[in-house]
Amino acid sequence: MRIAFIGLGNMGGGMAANLANAGHEVRAFDLSEEALARAVEAGCTRAASAAEAVTGAEAVVTMLPAGKHVAGVYEGDVYPNAGPGTLLLDCSTIDVATARSNIEAATAKGLVAVDAPVSGGIAAANAGTLTFMVGGTEEGFARAEPILAKMGKAVIHAGDAGAGQAAKICNNMLLGASMIATCETLALAQKLGLNPQKFFDIASVSSGQCWSLTSYAPLPGVGPTTPADNDYKGGFAAALMLKDLRLAMEAAASVDADVPMGSRARDLYEAFVESDKEGRDFSAIIKTLQG
């Protein structure tokens, strides 16, 4: 299948490479020449522009920073150049309202669009083990699933247009809040004289067990290898967690939802990102909670 892939950053680069490795003809574009060169090395074909990538493509995958970027690429490059029935898969994490309006506009132009944000981070993007949360019609999901499956371990139809984004921001609000709870609990355990690994051994098989502890422990040398073992480099940047928490707060306000834990997590990550000059993983917030 001829696939246009627009946005080859930390996540998109690995995703495009996996599509190429699966035998698809991937025409890739990014504003970064370095990112584009890596995609070519991974088996993608270089496109001189997003418009060139889209022309003649059967499917278009976008992995961009924010809703305004996705809307801009759709309006400026995708709609004028995509053929009738072209499948659009937006894997960016953006606000629900923009995702819905993008899909509505694409449908009106005779295209088939889904929102398909991801969970899993850079390592999963490179390994092809992402989880995709997909919003759109049954037809759109049926066409998108075989493509997404080449980049992920799980592809789940969350519901109608925008449901993928809703699932993503709710999931990451839970992750952000649970990581803070995990970090402050480990910090308390240390101050109470508990050996961190011993506490991990207990909590990971007790009622306090959670993904932030057992799969992503924020202390080096505790549990499985995580970004904490690499000086909090790699993984999921705190700035991206903050972005998702802000999106969650916007969504909560739009439906008058009470989210005190999510709101507090947003505030704590805002303070952490402002003070952290190294762009570290979101689990590095334990440094703040340790005092």
From TrEMBL:
EC number: 1.1.1.31
Catalysed reactions, semicolon-separated: 3-hydroxy-2-methylpropanoate + NAD(+) = 2-methyl-3-oxopropanoate + NADH + H(+)
Listed pathway(s): Amino-acid degradation; L-valine degradation
Residue intervals of the 3-hydroxyisobutyrate dehydrogenase-like NAD-binding domain: 162-288
Pfam families: NAD_binding_11, NAD_binding_2
Keywords: Branched-chain amino acid catabolism, NAD, Oxidoreductase
Domain 6-phosphogluconate dehydrogenase NADP-binding: start-end pairs: 2-159
Recorded superkingdom: Bacteria
First-level EC class: oxidoreductase
Entry's Gene Ontology molecular function annotations: 3-hydroxyisobutyrate dehydrogenase activity
Gene3D superfamilies the UniProt entry points to: N-(1-d-carboxylethyl)-l-norvaline Dehydrogenase, domain 2, NAD(P)-binding Rossmann-like Domain
Record flagged with keyword Transport: no
Family membership noted in the UniProt record: Belongs to the HIBADH-related family.
Protein name: 3-hydroxyisobutyrate dehydrogenase
Species: Sphingopyxis jiangsuensis
